[in-house]
Amino acid sequence: VISAFGAVMMPRMSNLYARSKYDECRDLFVRSMEIAIFIGCAITFGISSIANDFIPIFYGTGYDACVSITIMLSATVLFITWACIVRTLYLIPTEKNKVYIYSVFLGAGVNVIINWALIPRLASVGAAVGTIIAEVTVAVYQTIMVRKELDVSQCMKKSVPFIIFGSIMFLVVKILPFEVGGNIGRLIAKIFIGAMVYLALSAIYFLKTKNKLFYDWEAYENIMIFDVRRMEEMVYIVVPIFNTEKYLEQCLKSIHKQTYQNWKCLLVNDGSTDGCSQICETFANGDSRYVYIYEE
């Protein structure tokens, strides 16, 4: 789910970076991280809370040891979520491939070392510990490398409420008695109650804080619904110019009025002696998409 979310958002973020809209990029990153953590916490604490009931139903009898492993590995969802958003919404769009590659190798190396040390002693628990530490390593390394470009502290601050809500959901599901409909009925009841608790707490939080993801639907749509024009590729228009003052302004205005907005216009003045230079400079100063080049 998180990977799909990142994949969907990545073209939008790449487009914003290509157009040098860095403030919008940072804002979109924080909001996207908030959405991802909202989903990630639900998955992490949800899996943990129902593992005792889910494992016997899904795997059958004799797999009780998998319950503790599943609960342990569910913790990795949050770190995978964090690293996924950093990767898909910043490292890849900005072509910082080295940071991503180094983090993968670092995580793999840590995993190998932890597995070598713990698996002989703890078996599957040791492997789970290695996986957790490896995912934490990847997320921490990527965060450190992007801390100057992105508002990491804001992302962490916005993650705390959902971790709290997830913990409350976990406690409610664990404490309340569910004696209905056998094993499957109990599992369904726990999923339903847990989801209602988490969603209710999140909705109250969104409303109390007037969070744009819930309170301002127009801002929410700006994140989740893509403008087709913004997703289109950059188009470069080259306008060769030599003493065409009479027609130049009309030409440049026609470019400006078109519905396709993702373009750059290169105004190549080949030593004009009339008023073309003044016209080009006026358009270039008024709209950064016009790039004026003068050649003698």
Mind explaining what this structure looks like?
With 296 residues, the chain is mainly alpha-helical. The chain contains twelve helices and three strands. It has helices at residues 2-18, 22-59, 65-74, 76-91, 97-122, 124-146, 152-175, 182-208, 217-224, 228-231, 245-257, 276-286; strands at residues 235-241, 263-269, 290-294. Strands 1-2-3 form a three-stranded parallel beta sheet, with helices on one face. Helix 12 (276-286) links the parallel strand 2 and strand 3. Helix 2 packs parallel to helix 7 (152-175). The termini are far apart. The relative contact order is 0.10.
Number of strands: 3
Identify the quaternary structure here.
single chain
Strand order of the largest sheet: 1-2-3
| Amino-to-carboxy terminus distance | 56 Å
The total of helices stands at: 12
Q: Helix coverage percent of residues?
A: over 70%
Beta-strand content estimate: 5-15%
Silhouette: elongated
Largest sheet: 3 strands, parallel
Enumerate the spans where pLDDT stays under 50 for 5 or more consecutive residues.
Answer: 217-221, 223-231
Order of helices and strands: HHHHHHHHHHEHEHE
Radius of gyration based on Cα positions: 27 Å
Structural class: mainly alpha
Question: What is the residue-mean pLDDT, rounded to a whole number?
Answer: 87
Summarize the structure.
73% of the residues lie in helices and 6% in strands. It is mainly alpha-helical and 296 residues long.
